[in-house]
Specification:
By secondary structure, the protein is α/β, with parallel strands linked by helices. It has a single domain, classed as Aldolase class I (TIM Barrel). The chain contains eleven helices and eight strands. Strands 7-6-5-4-3-2-1-8 form an eight-stranded parallel beta sheet. The two termini are about 15 Å apart. It binds phosphoenolpyruvate (PEP).
Length: about 260
């Protein structure tokens, strides 16, 4: 049975005090979670050990990181390895976010290496894909996203897919206030599931969680999460305010 997941991507926001307060407020909001309806919190690296300590005893809330490096160790000043994340008790790592692809020039080959290192170190991967506006306007989004999945993931053996979650994030909807309609999200998620099924079989396709990301908020989460192939969300801006985040988590809990 695939999980429903709401994952918080804080990006480069919140100092240690603000982050601790936010986690506290989320805890005090008593989110209704189960083994199959979970939350992942991905703060900046510097928060990880602190946030991890706060999450001890919070059932079904998991620690995530926003990135890891594409080499195992060595002279890469400023970078963080998958093994380091594992040693900090991180469970999930986001790989391939469009901001990493665009601002840090992370290409498909680099992302595939990151995926390999994350899995080799026992992390679960939230692999991001999604098209820019020009591709959507040309109605080429299905082929574009398929090529991202092939390049980033399809070298993996079928057994690895249990540790992969996919986040579909149309770039034109990230941080813009413009959300994909639930029909657009459902169409793409169904396409992703078909692509997964063609490569790895129907069981893997049915068991893989596919999250939507892009200006998701309490007012649109319920409609998005009601789509049969939308298994939750990767949340940026709305994950920085406890009330908004809890509203989105409640939409998942009720879906
Ligand atoms: C994101 O960056 O993953 C994201 C979905 O951002 P936002 O929710 O702010 O659009």
């Amino acid at each position: 049975m695939r999980k429903k997941i709401v994952a918080a991507n804080w990006k480069m926001n919140l100092d240690l005090t603000e982050g601790a307060e936010l986690v506290n407020d989320i805890f005090n909001g008593s989110p209704q979670l189960t083994e199959h309806k979970i939350v992942v919190i991905a703060p900046p690296f510097i928060h990880l050990t602190h946030t991890g300590a706060q999450l001890v005893g919070m059932n079904h809330v998991h620690l995530g990181a926003q990135n890891c490096y594409s080499e195992a160790s060595g002279a890469y000043t400023g970078e963080i390895s998958a093994a380091m994340l594992k040693s900090a008790e991180v469970e999930y790592v986001i790989i391939g976010h469009s901001e990493r692809r665009e601002y840090f020039h992370e290409d498909d080959a680099m992302l595939a290496k990151k995926v390999n290192l994350a899995l080799a170190n026992g992390l679960k991967v939230i692999f991001c894909c999604g098209e820019p506006l020009a591709i959507r306007d040309a109605n080429d989004q299905n082929a574009y996203v398929e090529s991202q999945l092939i390049a980033g993931l399809f070298h993996l053996p079928v057994t690895a897919l249990t540790d992969i979650t996919i986040a579909y994030e149309p770039i034109w909807a990230i941080g813009t206030g413009r959300t994909a309609t639930s029909a657009q999200a459902q169409d793409m998620h169904a396409h992703i599931r078909t692509v997964l099924g063609n490569k790895y079989g129907d069981t893997v396709a049915a068991d893989t969680s596919i999250l939507y990301g892009g200006s998701c908020k309490p007012s649109n989460a319920a409609e998005l999460f009601a789509c049969p192939d939308v298994d939750g969300g990767l949340i940026g801006g709305a994950s920085l305010k406890a009330a908004e985040f809890l509203g989105i988590v409640a939409a998942m809990s009720n879906a």
